[in-house]
Amino acid sequence: MEFGLPRGMRDILPEEFESAEIIRSAFLDTSRLFDYKIMEPSPLELVETLEAKSGPSIRDEIYFFKDKSQRELGLRFDLTLGLTRYVSSRKDLSPPIRVGSFASVWRYEEPQYGKYRWFYQWDAELFGHPKDVEADAEVIEFSSTIFRKIGAKPKILIGSRRVIEEFVRKELQIVDENKILDILRAIDKLSKKSISQIAEEYSNSFSLQDFNKVVKFVRTEGKAPSSSSDLYGLSGDNKVDLSGVLEIIDSLKARGVQDVEIDLSIARGLDYYTDMVFEAIDSKDTKVGSLCGGGRYDSLPPLYGRPDLGATGVAGGIERAILAIGSKSLSQNFQGRKKAFVAPVGDKKEIVREAASAAAELRRNDIPAQSEITGKSLRKILEAQSGSGVEAIVLIGEREFTSRSVKIKWMKEGKEETVKREDLVRVLKSA
After folding, report:
1. pLDDT score for 332
2. Sequence-ordered alpha helix ranges (H) in 150-235
3. 100 exposure class (CB count in 10 Å sphere: 0-12, 13-18, 19+)
4. pLDDT in tens, 109-128
């Protein structure tokens, strides 16, 4: 029998896990800088909680089942719903409320490049006043800070679902909320399907002619304009109000966030977004897709009992960030403590034990270290450690053991130096 994995699942291998931890570290550090409190919402939710905004159709996109008491449960498909449910239940918390999470989620979607059915996300949510431009800008700045920390410079694209809705109502005379939602869902599929395919899929809600008008409108993009008419050339009653988007961009400029563009084709697929939406994309590799995305969702807290709260947030995929930046680059960007390997020269028990003692002392002083325990020769030790990221090989032979010294071989420089055993920690820390 061949034991495999369910479709869309995979094992997270050591090198990917290490890269994910680097991103997690950058997220936690950013959360401290912005004072976001970290928590993890329950991985299991009542299906009715998950359906509260997205409706019964969400069952097609999630893993759900009945437990032994026949309760319908679902695995969380994002972190936003759980964090919103939690914050909404805490009437004692006063806005602004800043919370974040780093955890795994499950989605029953078609697997593709950089996209699995089980994956990790970082997530930051800010609950406060509805339509708060500065909160929107803060969440985008939060995202930009994480990418700066891990050595990435993605392009940030900002859209507005409210602006699209305004255009649809004025230009197409469509006022039915369900049809407008279908148009927003259709826009989100523009990168995956042709215009005619999408129009056929939603033929009950809008015509191909109408959708072509929408596509022409949302595909007008570029640097921040000075007014709505500068960007779209609209006039009279059909003008749309871009002031909210422009205010966000002004705030981002003041915050030093660069490479920001308006792109109304960014609509985001989740129905709970109400206005500003944004994505950070890797302009060098379009296959990777969105590195993070988010927006304003003022309609969600009221569903969970907090009509006084507005909300804006962002979530980023770990796997896509690793694809965009590369495991090697992530490790180089986060070089910190020296990594050492202590090698006994020979197989005398007291020397092997001294090597283990030296490695343990290094670890007690926060220096990653391991010692040889399998009896390999020095040549094989050097071969094995040459590509492992170890910067210093600490050699202990009979001469060093007798004189209470160690020989340090610096792998990158190819140099060697002998130091007193008692100075080993100091030398490695100061190098």
Report:
1. 58
2. 161-167, 177-188, 195-201, 208-218, 228-232
3. buried
4. 888 876 789 999 999 999 99
**C-beta atoms surrounding 357 within 10 Å:** 14
- In terms of Cβ atoms closer than 10 Å to its own Cβ (0-12, 13-18, 19+), residue 147 is buried
Contact 291, 324 (CB under 8 A): yes
The answer to whether 131 and 161 have CB atoms below 8 angstroms apart is no
pLDDT digits (tens, 9 = 90+) for 183-197: 888 888 887 788 888
Report yes or no: 271 and 53 within 8 Å, Cβ to Cβ: yes
Q: Which DSSP letter does residue 112 get? A: B
Contact between 409 and 392 (Cβ < 8 Å): yes
Helices (H), 5-98: 14-34, 47-54, 80-89
In order of their start, the domains of the chain are 14-332 (3.30.930.10), 337-430 (3.40.50.800)
Residues in a beta bridge with 277: 159, 295
Checking if the pLDDT of 357 tops 70, the result is yes
**Percent helix, strand and coil across the chain, each to the nearest 5:** 40, 20, 35
Q: Which residues lie across from 402 on neighbouring strands?
A: none
pTM: 0.80
Name the E strands within 7-160: 37-38, 44-46, 64-66, 72-75, 97-106, 118-128, 155-160
Whether the upstream peptide bond of residue 96 has omega within 30° of 0, thus cis, is: yes
| Identity at 251, one-letter amino acid code | S
Pairing assessment for the beta strands 276-281 and 340-344 based on DSSP bridges: unpaired
pLDDT at residue 228 tops 50: no
Are the C-beta atoms of residues 250 and 158 closer than 8 Å to each other? no
